[in-house]
# Entry
Amino acid sequence: MRREWAALPGTVVTEIAERVGGIIDVRPALTGNHAEIASSVVGTSGMVFVKAATTGLSVQTLRYELAATGAVDRFPPAVLWHFERDGWLVVGAELLDGPHPDLSPGSPDLDLLQVTLKALQGKSAPPGTWFTPAGRLGFALPEMQGRTLVHSDINPTNLILTANGLRVVDWAWTTEAASWVELALLVQWLIGSGHSPAQAEEWLGQFPAWTSVGRDTLDAFAAMNAAKWAVKAEQSADGWVHDLAAWTCAWAKHRSAAG
Ligand SMILES: Nc1ncnc2c1ncn2[C@@H]1O[C@H](COP(=O)(O)OP(=O)(O)OP(=O)(O)O)[C@@H](O)[C@H]1O
Ligand SMILES: [Mg+2]
# Structure
């Protein structure tokens, strides 16, 4: 859960300052909420995006992020430096500049996303420890098991449209799974961006990993994902949780009606 920059011990801030030539300004990220610290830092020698963690799951996911960004070419922000000090893991990454893409039906940004996903699809997970489908999502099917590296949180806020192309941030939830799982987890965000469930599925039909997965498997995935978010929505007043519950429910209803 996000914390203030002031939560960082002075020793950690000093180490960051040394790496940026003295801190001029710190701008907390406006989107996302899981990382404890996620801020743009302006220093005399340039700008950097800093993520830092000190508690269990936060540290674990930041380690996954560090490993994944080192394993995937081109799309993640480059890691400039990282260190551990006084119980904090701190990562300084390339600061990406640009808006989040528009994933609504007919948006040209969808073509950029298609190119990005095609390039990312099918990358084998390098040896290491990654989330399993059950560990990441809280549910699993045998068909979700696989050997590919799945970002698992491709949504507009984790995509940045730079002058040099679409980039993907927030590799904290990287999972070793079947490649169709990446696409199945995108359905909710396509629906949230204005697609009907049928339009979302039609757009995903251009990916071989999508067309090769069985109907029953997708039916079961959609139902389990919707059930999970329905439970979360009962326990939370957060708007984003209720949005995800509505979008995953819309997909599950569409699939059960089609079946
Ligand atoms: N390298 C970067 N350059 C510029 N902006 C970034 C960078 N990395 C992340 N961001 C921005 O900061 C936001 C928060 O970062 P990130 O998504 O990595 O953290 P998070 O809190 O774990 O997110 P979530 O709650 O989605 O899991 C992102 O939505 C993105 O807008
Ligand atoms: Mg994020």
Summary: Residues 109-258 form a domain with the Aminoglycoside 3'-phosphotransferase; Chain: A, domain 2 fold (CATH 3.90.1200.10). Residues 28 and 39 are 4 Å apart (CA to CA). The mean pLDDT is 96. The first strand starts at residue 23 and ends at 28.
